[in-house]
């Protein structure tokens, strides 16, 4: 639950692997790829996504390619590259909310 998730908003070259993506993490996101955080990258056409993360004893990659459609990147609330788990799940599942509403307000 405490894992930080960073979204690289530029177009990433999907030919990059561990070292290339780690370089993007260090240079562009100013983060440490060995920190235990999850780093998300999309290609220019938004048809592919790669996730890079440290898995206790080495870096791991997760890769998804869409056969049709595109990934919709979540809006950046404050210009930060961080997103929450909910935004990541919606990105990977193809959910594009127009507006998010809470079912209940505090005090209801």
Structure description:
The chain has 108 residues and is α+β, with helices and mostly antiparallel strands. The chain is 19% helix and 26% strand. It has helices spanning 18-28, 85-93; strands spanning 5-11, 38-42, 48-54, 59-65, 82-83. Strands 4-3-2-1-5 form a 5-stranded mixed sheet. β1 (5-11), α1 and β2 (38-42) form a beta-alpha-beta unit.
What does the main sheet amount to? 5 strands, mixed
Helicity level, as a percent range? 10-25%
- Counting helices, strands and paired strands, the structural category is alpha+beta
What is the count of helical runs? 2
Strand order of the largest sheet: 4-3-2-1-5
Quick one: how many beta strands?
Answer: 5
Q: Quick one: overall form? A: globular
Order of helices and strands: EHEEEEH
Strand content: 25-35%
User: What is the typical, i.e. mean, pLDDT?
Assistant: 87
Q: What separation lies between the terminal Cα atoms?
A: 27 Å
Overall radius of gyration: 15 Å
Query: Uncertain regions: pLDDT < 50 for 5+ in a row?
Result: none
Primary descriptors:
single chain, alpha+beta, five-stranded mixed β-sheet, 2 helices, globular
Record the SSE blueprint.
Blueprint: E1 5-11, H1 18-28, E2 38-42, E3 48-54, E4 59-65, E5 82-83, H2 85-93
Parallel strand pairs: 1-2
Antiparallel strand pairs: 1-5, 2-3, 3-4
């Amino acid at each position: 639950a405490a894992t930080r998730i960073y979204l690289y908003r530029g177009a990433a070259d999907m030919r990059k692997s561990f070292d290339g993506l780690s370089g993007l993490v260090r240079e562009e996101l100013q983060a440490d790829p060995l920190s235990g955080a999850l780093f998300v990258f999309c290609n220019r056409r938004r048809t592919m996504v790669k996730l890079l993360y440290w898995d206790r004893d080495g870096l791991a990659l997760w890769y998804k390619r869409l056969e049709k459609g595109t990934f919709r990147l979540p809006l950046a609330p404050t210009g930060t590259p961080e997103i929450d788990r909910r935004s990541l799940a919606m990105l990977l599942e193809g959910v594009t909310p127009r507006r998010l509403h809470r079912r209940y307000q505090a005090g209801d």
